[in-house]
Each structure stands twice: as structure tokens, then as C-alpha cells.
Amino acid sequence: MTDALNLPAPCLVILAGPGASGKSTWASAHFPADVIVSSDRLRAIIGSGEDDLAASTDAFALLDRIVQLRVARRLTTVIDTLGLDADRRAAWLALARKNDLACVVVAFDLPAGECRARNRTRNPRIPADVLTAQLRTWARVRETLPIEGFDAVLTPAPVRVVAAPFTEAAAAARRQYEQPSGLRFGLHLGSFTLPGGAATTADRLREIAEAAEAAGFSAIYVMDHFRQIPQIGRAWEDFLESYTALAYLAACTDRVRLGALVTGITYRNVPHLGKIIATLDVLSGGRAVCGLGLAWFKEEHVAYGWDFPSVGQRYVLLEDALRLLPTMWGPGGKPFHGQILEVPDTSCYPRPLQKHLPVIVGGGGERRTLRLAAQYADAANVLGSVETVRRKAAVLRAHCEAVGRDPQEVELTHLSTALVGADDQQVSELVSRLRPRNTDPARYAAAVHAGTAADHIGRFRQLAEAGVTEVMIRLADLTDPAPLDRMAKVIAAFR
Amino acid sequence: MKLSLHIPDFTWAHGPAQLGEDLAAIARTAEDAGFSSISVMDHFFQIGAIGPSEQEMLEAYTTLSYLAAHTSRVNLFAMVTGVVYRYPGVLAKEVTTLDVLSVGRAWLGIGAAWNEEESRGLGIPFPPVAERFERLEETLQICLQMWAGDEKPFEGKYYQLERPLNSPQPISKPHPPILIGGGGERKTLRLVARYAQACNLFESPQLAHKLEVLRGHCEREGRNYDEIEKTATIGAIDLGRRGEKIGEIVDRLGALGEHGITTVAGWVPDVATLTTLEKIGTDLIPAIADL
Prior knowledge:
B: alpha/beta; 11 strands; 40% helix
């Protein structure tokens, strides 16, 4: 892993410093050529050379136009000029703010003697008096940069532009290498559109499950839907029924836990669901996990003609289910009287092999969902940034205290998408290949968490520090086992 | 004559802890022995004819998908799905998923459901028999529509589906065969004539009469009687301790064959020991192949 500083994508990087202080060299070392907008290069393009001062006014007008167009498209851009003009800096910063880009300035603070020495080796040289004037201006500019409102004033150290969620990842990854913490990984299968189509889905799925087990995943989860959800794909893409698929996966694997993340409470008669999960547990040798949630996908219910009660009623049903299912899985057949569910005989034989079948409640709703998790579940599964997770963790703890539950008994788990590349180049290739047309690469990279193994180690470490004990990962490019091999390196760092 | 293994009982010597492994071994052995298909019941409690309610009972479609991964040739189905347990859309997705994961080996075995005690026990609505039959017919229509890729709204008396989308479609073409269980003369056999690829009748003195009734329904529905596969259930396949009853079974199956039955389903005592399955494979299945 490198010690480079992570800049969030997209960002506007403004270089500032006297001539011969190393700006262009630094820029070309850390950024692709297309990203760098250089006043020298524009003078050479529209004038007679990089030092054609007569072309300066036109070159800067062009530079401003290019910067404006790139920033409006939310593209990472490096402005390679002297950067000594306060009005220009302010205008670029305002442009970045308007388009919601991070904006940093890199200060090339070389001692005057060193600048002069470097200038003597350049061809053509900057006239000595011009350089002296620049050095004098730079000394004043250097003082005001920290109070001009940039997100950071950097020194010309190595930098990488990373998907926004990884900005803090490098330091977190270092913490993980130095003092490893444990974390479980679950593979979340969000798509069944696999090469070869339905005719080979069974084989592809078996390969993926076997590779996931080999990569160190401790669980495999599927979604409980009947058609693909709009957040992931189109309605008519292949989608398998959850528990039928899980029972098949039980036969393909030996070690991983299996569950739906999360079962919509509205789709099946709830005691039938209890029977299905007990069956999955028995056939898998005690590896079932029960994920439960409110259900949200109204169009799907309408499409198939299923009842979709009000959110209040669904909460009541969810609470009934959270009470009923452990009763069914326990001994005997005592009657259950819920607020909605009446089950005169809760017999369910064979009972699950696990003495206690873990229940995960999905959803981060702070008032009701996390409270139900605190009251009844073994884990709450949430989404969102590290910052969001910290807040959910605090809310869950508070609910635990309010209902008299030991907070240690209720785990926090986290679901997110990941796209893992072996290195920066592979990450950007994957992003270009997978991003939907018309979707900005930086936005897509941030949405799917596109990064290297080290980036992911850092992000997962941050989640672990926020209180997460298991991360469920949907791999954006999971159509064959290859991405699982790349993920194995990440998982290995948390053993 | 083909033989189909019915597994109605999961109470075996090793207990629930080994149930998964035992079941996988039974399925593999049955496949190697030459059984053409494997079926399980669609119940949540053990049924009275076989054992006390508290005995082990696995959920049907979860179990069938597990078996799909442990076999490569046998057809798999529920004998028979109770129509009241699932929303029709869920059922169509489950059977389709089973078909895709088994690469084209799923059947939809279905019936009007009868076990009121079990449904009441679990709080599953159990409407009167006439309504169950109407729901059965609508469920068959919905499955067929979803398998035909027809997404237009379904407006039934009991079920309204705005967009019955089904992706992936089954690998079985044109769709997983439908088996309707039971010999009810007025309704069940009429539904067979109208919708099914197979019927399932009990071995009984009334069998020939039931088939005549089915033939009559076929004539009224304009259906070719011969394209419906006739299957029968014979209860236990009991070879006797030393196989002394094999001849008797061959004779019984021969008699069924004369009525046009081409597949016979039965359960096997002590199935988990595997030895009876193996013996059926060596001694019975070859003897009935040409019936």
C-alpha cells in the first residue's frame, strides 16, 4: 500500500507556487494528462510556445472556459498555473462550491535559492527578475492560502483521487494493519443476471457460492424479491425466489451461513415462513439466518396482487413475527396470540438445529425499526456512510438501554456495494466498464465504493470502529468468481 | 413403467442433526437406482396417515431446491402443493426457481388442499372446498400466464395481479409440467383435462372408472386424453425382508399399466438405510421397465 494522501473524487486541484517550483512535474506524476489544464500548454497551443506572453490573455480565457466546462461536468481537474492571482483562485473555488466539488490548493513552497537553481537548468529559462517578482508575490500568497476557504492546503506529496467514501480510508487501513480488529463478511447476491442465462444459472451460482466460501465469506445472503428492484436493475432481469435459492445454496456449501437480507414480512404466511427457515436450518446443518424487514416495494405487491398494508400495520405484523418465529422454533406447540397473527398450534418439527436461530432486522428507521431490533433481534442491519452508522449505533444502544437489553447482545451489521480492483488502474477500468451510460464516473465510483483492496480495508475498519460486526457486501461486478478472489485480500486483513 | 420415489416421512434414526445429509444420500441413491422422479408432500405438520403431527416435516420447496443441488437427472415435485398456502405469484416464482436451479427438472404438483387442522393450527386461511377449487383454477391460470411471459393484468375473482412478471422463465418448455392430484370426479378431473399434463390417482378398484371420467372430461374440453400422463400412487413399496414380495409388486404395477398408468409413485419403508432403494434399483426397476 502507498502512503499517498486520498483526495475525494471529483475534486478541483489548484496548484500555486513560483515558476520552477515543480508544479507541472508533480501534476503529471499523479494525474492523467487529460485532467491537467495548464496555462503553459495553452500558450503553446494558441501561441508560438509556452513562453509566448503575448498569448497569455487568450490562453487564460481558454483555461477558464475549460475549467468551467470540466467542473460543470463534475470532472476532477488540476489547474496548473502560477496560481498567484487571488481573484482567479476565489473564482475557481466558487465554481467548485457551486458544483459541489471538493477544492484543494497545493502549495509549492520551495526555498527561493532552490527555485533559482532549478530555473537555471530550464530551457527556456524564466527571466531572473520575473522569477524574483514571483517569489516575492508567493511569500504573500502563502500567508493567505489557509484562510481562503479551501478544503485543504496541501504540500506537493503523493496524492490519489479516490471515490469519496475512501477519503479517510488510508489512515484507517494503517490502523487495521497495526492493530487488526475482527469483522465478519457476508456476500450479498443482488443480481442473478449471469453469463449464459437461466440455462446455466444453477452452475454459475454453485461456482460463486464455492468461491465465496473459499474467499473467506462467512455468510451468503440473497434479497427477498420476486423481480429485480429498481435500485439495482430492470424489472425483467432474472430474479430467483429467495428461499428456494438458499436451499439450493445449502447443498452447494459446507460452512457459510445462509439467509435472506431481508425477508419481507408481507410475502408469505408468517408461520409458513417459520417452517421454511427451520427447513433451511435443518438441511444446511444449522446455518440459517433469519433476516426480517417491513417490506417496502409497493409496485411489486401490486404487480402480483398481494396485500400491502399501511406502514403502521406492517410494523405490527413485523413485531408479531419477531415474537412468533422464536416460539415456533422452540419446543412444543403452544398457541400464539399476536396483535394480528393468531396461531393456535405453533408446532414446527424438526426444530432448527441451532439452539438459537439468529434474527437480523433490516432497516435503519430510528424510532421503530431499531427499537424492534433492540427488543427482539440479534442484529440490526443498516445502510449508509460511516457517519450514519455511528449515529445508528448510538440510537440502537439507547433503545437497548430503554428496553433493558444488554447492548452487547444486539449486533450492528452493514450492507453496502463494493467494487474491488487490484490497483488504481483496474479500479478505473472497472468503473468505466460498469458505469451506466450517462452516469458520471465519480458518482458511480462513490455509489458502488470502487476502490483497491487497501481502500476497502480502510473503509471496513472505519465501520468496525463505528460498531459494526458484520459487513454484507454486494459486489458490483459479480458475474463470475474473479471478484471474490480480489475480495479475499480484504477479508484476510480482518481475520 | 417408471417409478417415482415419494418421501412423506423425515423421521429417521439419525435425527434432525443428520437430516440434510441423510436426505441428500437418499436422493442420490434413488437417482442411481433409476427412479424417474422424487416428490415430497406440501405439509407443515406430519399428516395423520403417516405419523403424529409432531414428527419431522420439512417445507416442500426449500427441500426440493436442496435436492436439486444433490441430483442431476430426476424430476422434482411436490405431491401435491396445497393451493391455499402461498400467493399464486410466490408459487410460480418458487416452481420457476426450482426449475432453473435444477436445469429443467421441476414439475408443479398441485391440489385443492385438505388438511384443515394443519391450516387452522398455523393460522393459515382455509376457505370452504368450493372456494378452494376456484382458487386452484385461478392459480393454474396465473402460473400458465406467468410461464407464457404474458404480463397483462390478471383479473380473477380471488386474485388480481397488475403485472405478473416472471424472470427468469423456466428452462422446461413450454413450462414445468402440471400434475393435479386427486380423483374428484366433478372438479379435480375436469381441471386435469383443462390444464394438466398429468393426473395422479390412488391404486384402487375405482381407478378404471376415474380414468373413464377423465376421458369424458377430455372429450367435453376438447383435450386429447392420450397426451395426459397417468400416474398412480401405491403407498409403500414393500419388497419384503428378502425381496419375496417383488413378484407381487410387479403384478400390481402390471395391472396399473394395463389401465394406461405409466408412472407409479410410492414411499419406501426405512428409506434412510438406502439398502431398500438399492434393491429396488437392481431388482424391481429393471423388471417393470417394459410394462
